[in-house]
Amino acid sequence: MAPSGSKTQENNTSPELPEELPYDFLKQITNDFAEDRKISGSPFGTLYKGFVPDGDRVIAVRKLQENAPMPADKTFSKEVQNVMALKHENIVQLVAFCSETTKKLVQFDGKYIQADITESLLCYEYLPDGSLEEKLFEAEAAEDVSSAEPSIDWGTRFKIIKGICKGLQYLHKLDIPIIHMDLKPENILLDANMVPKIADFAFSRVFGQEQTRLCTQTVVGSYGYMAPEYLYKGEISAQSDIYSLGLMIIEITTREKNCPEKDQPSARKFIDKVCKEWTPEHIASKYALLDSEGHKQVKACIEIGLKCVEVDRKCRPPIDEIVDTLNGLRESRTAKKVTRTSTTSAKLRSIFGDKKK
């Protein structure tokens, strides 16, 4: 696929990796997926640091759970190759993948049998500063979240929101659109300048030309971020991503974490709470150091987020409208700018440091 409007980026890392890598090679560079190479984990897979020989290069290797709910092998490989063509400031670069079927002894009905197990892995550029989840909530947890001086100032939060939206706009406006299907703070990585990059395309869908919606019987994703029509009807569209985007915008803006509950897969209780509590007076108290323009930005972002999480997908704004609205907001000229070092920075450096262990 040759995405339209793509922005090329120089890749200073060498040597270049082939697009499809053998499973044994990925086992080698992660030291057989050793615990001390683990970056993060989720119900759908685990992310490891991989040290590529003959170049001293570090890549991030996500090992999906065995026989994960993914498309069939050929479809998986085709969609991954489409994602590898993406070049954008706010998209993590996918550099290689592996989809390999091996025979393993597994226990079944009290007996050991030989079964075909498909190993699916995705390799990304390595970003040592970690995820938005960690920066946004681990740092806040170590401080007084009622403070008017958050660990990440509003200007940086607004920049992160705009960056995520621009990355999603790029995906949705390709000649052959890509729907991410798993947008959440954990899947937004940050570079050294706090530039957000959308990551983890394990559940993404590539739409055909002129296609705007499809249905599936296999619903996979992250509890608390799934759009209602996808969760209950299996409907997939660009508006599925808009719903998840809205929840992230709300979290980034309010500094409140969306904690998924078993009976709240679409986070309606969290949404109702924000809608009720975040009045102009509440915004002014939570962001006491901001000027009027800053308060307008906060209010606008909450309003955008709430529009994005409308139950009826047809009422959600398209990504172009969201980006235009954000671009139209005037810059805050707050005189006081608070810069604070996160109490978790040492921990993050120890986990995401770029030196070999």
UniProtKB/TrEMBL annotation:
PROSITE patterns xrefs: PROTEIN_KINASE_DOM (PS50011), PROTEIN_KINASE_ST (PS00108)
Any GO molecular function: protein kinase activity
Leader peptide range in chain numbering: none
Region listing for Disordered, in residue ranges: 1-21
Superkingdom as given in the UniProt entry: Eukaryota
Polar residues bias (residue ranges): 1-15
Domain Protein kinase span(s) in chain numbering: 33-329
SUPFAM superfamilies in the record: Protein kinase-like (PK-like)
InterPro entries: Kinase-like_dom_sf, Prot_kinase_dom, Ser/Thr_kinase_AS
PANTHER family: PROTEIN KINASE DOMAIN-CONTAINING PROTEIN, S-LOCUS LECTIN KINASE FAMILY PROTEIN
Name under which the protein is recorded: Protein kinase domain-containing protein
Organism: Lolium multiflorum
Top-level taxonomy: Eukaryota, Viridiplantae, Streptophyta, Embryophyta, Tracheophyta
